[in-house]
Amino acid sequence: MSPHHHLPRTLSLILGIGLLAPAAMAGPVGDAIQRLQGETWVTRSFSLADLGITRTVLMTGFDVKQEFYLPVPRNVPIAEAGIDFRGRYYKAEEARSSMLLSINGRPGYTMRVDGNEGDASQALKVDVRTITDGFLRLGVNWVNKSTEQICAYERPSNNVLAVEPDTRFTYRFTSGALASLADAWIALPARPTLIVSGKKLSKGAYDSAWRMGVAMDQAGRVTNVRSFPAVGDTVDTQGWQIPSALAGLPAFSGLAAGQPRYQIRDAAEIGALVMLGAGSATGDLAIMDGALRQQINAALDALGAQLGGDADAARAFADWRGRQTALATDGMPSHMVRLATLGARPVIVMAEDAGAQAAGAFADAWRNVLIGRNAVIDKADPAEADSRTVMHPTQWGGTNPNFDVLSKGDWTVSMPLAAVAADGRLPHDLSVDLAVAPSAGQSRPVATVYWNDTLLGATRLRADGHPERIDARVPSYAIGLNNVLRVAVQRQPYYNGCNEAPQAYPVQVLRTTAIRTGEPAPDGTFVGLLPLLANKPQLAVPEAWLADATATLPRVIRIATAAGVSPVRAELVVQAQGQGFSPARPFLALQVPVDGAKVKVDVKDGHLRIAGKQAPWLDVSGLQQASAVEVVSGKGQPGVVYQALGNQPVIDKPFVLNRGDLAVLSAEGPVAWSDSSIAAHSDAPSADDGVFAEWRRHLTWGVPVLAFALLALLLLFIVAHRLNKRKKHDKS
Predict the structure, then answer these.
(1) DSSP string, 238-267
(2) pTM score > 0.70 for this model?
């Protein structure tokens, strides 16, 4: 066939392909939008300081081991996990020193230490296949082998390994890998962002926001409350990567200009922030009230209008918008919590009235029940056993209760305040049950019990393999926001004149170890109020605070956490301007006058005055960044009153009011305490405490009775003796 006969067919084929190409291939803008709607990588990073270990951990001795537990989601495949171990060593003695770092029991890095001082930092890769039970264990083993022959005793070593709080664990996961609310909660960053609709909130949205902030504080995360961006707001654009195809569009051009700080010009730019997944517009948690939903939809409508001239881009945008499950067409039913997508980022979205229910459901007791992406939570109260007077600390996990001890070994468990102060009760005393195996040595081992590094009690153990008990009282001043119970066991290593290598012998902390709680005692102190405020308190705030939510919510969250207010059971009271608050239950009042309350602290225009019985205790002016909190009584109800002297900055770290009845606060937390209550020395054991308390009660009436009985027996004996003597005389 002639080539001229093939020409028309070839031309028609080329024309056909040309006509189909626009439908088969997306334009550059549409293609860029399609790439934005796929799964994204999410990076999480936690330091030891973020997990509550804020001080340097010093490891001394000849063979010292320490384990750090780092949380990870249970059912989420993670990748590129690593630990940036930060530490330094200090050697004052000649010894063969070495450091071993292990991950989940497997050696990860070992180093021989020869210098007198140096850096022990090391980057470790984590085999994610070894992670189980939602934790990764970082083990640190510091070993010093002395050149001296020491067999009679185990002396302390002056060689120290310092583990720094900025030791960091980092991992990544894909946004689509999160399939449950429980995993999403664990996967939240160390400082999650809570998005609300704006500076002015409804009572329902404000109520849910402060409850979630307190729940995050109790979980060891510090919440950053941020309002959804509005026109005129300034956003941080550092670290952004905007696709080149989108950078030329009006909504993206300003954001892509490279300015570190950018002021939003119109609603379409807000929609662009949402599409890019910017933290300022999407966050990690969101209170999805009607106002926030309307704002997000308006921003996306404005962005969509700019894309209307490009049919392919409009189709891609419509597809992308349909994947934004945070804006589902069914809205947010009452009490609903949803794991959703907003701008390709995972976000936990809550209905306007779901704050109390979500705070209860995300607590340790119930969180693992949230195995789906959606949940309507009608009630989620702390679990109540038949008797809440006894709690077993082993239920909170902790380190391995079975461990071998050569010279010293520890068992530790961390317990949140909300758990140990449940149902309006507070820890009063505890019993630690141990089973310790005998060793070859003759010296009896010693067990010591600490609560937040406060020594509660110690005893020598029989070490015969049978259960032994240590009873101790828990003083109120030792109770904190996070409570660490530590049981240390020390042995004297046995050397047999250097003929035998010393061996470690097993110790077990038994599950019968118990904490007993006492009835609440409003004794005029912060601690006396802790169990009452953890039950069903009232939280009163001025009505004006709802109009400045992003500035006042951090203050409410931090003070409510410090006072032990329950985020599940508390009632929010919004007080109108100029009206006094009349409490019906134990309360926390922030910048609200309390009816019938006599306060010692008077603050006005940066002037702080603390009244004493006859003269002021303190009279200081010029304080613009301080506040005061004190225990008061109003209308027969005990409570706590908070007053700010000026523009009080956000307090950086959560804390707990655990001593005295008055505290002065700064941005760093409490800076001064005072105790004028009758319970100032109430932590001393009373006559009703202790092993012989019951005997003392019996002896108070038993001694006179016993003395009378002995006298009666003596008289009977004398009478019987005289009668017997008389009978003998009569017979004679």
Answers:
(1) TT----HHHHTSHHHHTGGG--SEEE--SH
(2) yes
